[in-house]
């Protein structure tokens, strides 16, 4: 756990000006590192599609967060569209898996 927290602290970088900036950067990196660790542990499971989902998901989530922080409504709408694509990316394997399970049961 200590290595995990030190890794998140190391990822915050040196672009903070106050303690609040450091705390915000630390929490952001801690959440990102937690999502990556959870994704590798439970989603990827030595699966190429899972690896693609984790890489694409973190990239899309970063882009969506940047778009959603913009003051213009056009960019925020694009951020919501990116979040929708992200949800569809993760729903696609789940729906396919459910359809295969239901086809085997019949």
Structure description:
This protein is an all-alpha fold. It has helices at about 1-10, 20-45, 50-70, 75-105. Helix 1 (about 1-10) crosses helix 2 (about 20-45), helix 2 (about 20-45) packs antiparallel against helix 3 and helix 3 packs antiparallel against helix 4. The protein is flat, with a radius of gyration of 17 Å.
Could you give the topology of this structure?
Elements: H1 2-11, H2 19-44, H3 48-68, H4 73-105
Helix content: over 70%
- Summarize the helix and strand pattern as letters: HHHH
Broad structural category? mainly alpha
- Which consecutive residue ranges, at least 5 long each, have pLDDT under 50? none
Shape: flat
List keywords for this structure.
mainly alpha; 106 residues
What's the quick description here?
This protein is an all-alpha fold and about 110 residues long.
């Amino acid at each position: 756990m200590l290595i995990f927290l030190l890794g998140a602290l190391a990822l915050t970088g040196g672009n903070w000006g106050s303690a609040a900036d450091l705390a915000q950067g630390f929490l952001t990196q801690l959440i990102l590192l937690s999502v990556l660790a959870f994704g590798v542990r439970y989603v990827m499971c030595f699966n190429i599609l899972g690896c693609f989902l984790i890489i694409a998901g973190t990239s899309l989530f970063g882009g969506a967060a940047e778009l959603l922080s913009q003051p213009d409504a056009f960019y925020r709408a694009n951020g919501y569209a990116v979040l929708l694509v992200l949800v569809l990316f993760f729903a696609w394997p789940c729906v396919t898996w459910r359809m295969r399970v239901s086809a085997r049961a019949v």
